[in-house]
Amino acid sequence: MLNSKILIGTMSGTSLDGIDIALTKIHKNKISVLDFLHINYSTKLKENILKLHFPEENELEKSLLLSNELAILTGKGINRLLLKNSLSAKHIKGVGYHGQTIRHRPDKGYSNQIGNADLLSEITNLTVVSNFRNRDIAAKGQGAPLVPAFHKDLFFSKTKNRVILNIGGISNITYLPTNGPIIGFDCGPGNILLDHWIKINHNLDFDKKGNWAKKGQVIDGLLKYYLKDKFFNKLPPKSTGRDLFNLDWIKKGIKKTYSPEDIQRTLIELTAISITDAIKENCSGANEIYMCGGGAKNDFLVKILKNKTNLIIRGTSDLNLPEQQVESVAFAWLANQTLDKKFNNSPDVTGAKGFRILGSIHQS
Ligand SMILES: Nc1ncnc2c1ncn2[C@@H]1O[C@H](COP(=O)(O)OP(=O)(O)OP(=O)(O)O)[C@@H](O)[C@H]1O
Ligand SMILES: [Mg+2]
Fold this sequence. Notes:
Elements: E1 4-12, E2 18-27, E3 30-40, H1 43-51, H2 59-84, E4 92-105, E5 110-114, H3 117-124, E6 128-130, H4 134-138, H5 148-155, E7 162-167, E8 170-176, E9 183-189, H6 192-202, H7 211-214, H8 220-227, H9 230-233, H10 247-252, H11 260-282, E10 288-292, H12 299-309, E11 312-315, H13 326-339, H14 347-350, E12 360-362
Parallel strand pairs: 1-4, 4-6, 7-10, 10-11
Antiparallel strand pairs: 1-2, 2-3, 4-5, 6-12, 7-8, 8-9
Helix pairs in contact: 2-3, 6-11, 8-11, 11-12
The structure holds adenosine-5'-triphosphate (ATP) and magnesium ion (MG).
């Protein structure tokens, strides 16, 4: 491992599916994955996190206790990954710990990711970098998306204008033109609405391959109603989360006569249209799309996207990084920048006043 650095990146996204942990190596400025682990959230844990997205009694203590629970779960995962790879704390430069977002309100000047970084540092004996979003927000940025700088470093092509499309709970794009500044922003809902709707109708966590949505018909009136939301017409920089796209948001437009599967079909159409419009309006000259995130496994969504964008769509595994690992690897990369005292925000993307070093360091 001479001249290489090993870092860990962890990500728990808006889908609330669980924690992704990537063990990475940076060699000659190139990052690669040594191993990867996904820990599923239990139903109870997911419910408890979901509740904290909205005001409730004694939420301060509840969020602090959950913060500890999440750090313990993440710490166990990291220690397991190190043991499996015969590595110990002395081999690891640091951990990029995103934590779990429970509120994201850059308009009000904050974004809150829970996950006790001090406790994680104690459990793992590692230096932990956390709280990546608030410095960008303090500099008047959106604090999201944070991955475009990493996408550029890893996926930039000198010959093709590339779009990197991440479909997590929320969908976000990074546009990497061969010439010109990078563009990046949240397009709107990714899997979040689809997950909500199948959960309350069939008690499933997600619509596998989009098979349920495929059975329905688009309800034009409902689609039009949803597309009226101001978020879709807002120009970048913009970011969003469960604060906006949630079950209440779905229910607002629904009439009793609509069938659940037609609603699911409409929600998947909405997801695809909001992504396609975002690409058409902001990525002129795009040649190809590389997808990542869990939405890449939704075959029906990918099919609709191919039809609507008329662009070649591949997965990031074709660029040597598996779709599910991109976000967690990004946080290892972001932490490495923090520890090297290098800028890691993208002011062009988030709207921040300038370059900043994001992340709070918790020394081992
Ligand atoms: N086989 C599948 N078919 C359809 N959807 C799937 C499948 N597997 C995963 N998904 C979707 O992907 C989601 C998880 O994706 P991912 O982990 O990228 O999201 P995330 O944790 O919210 O990340 P982000 O930080 O990008 O918001 C699941 O909630 C589910 O909706
Ligand atoms: Mg996830």
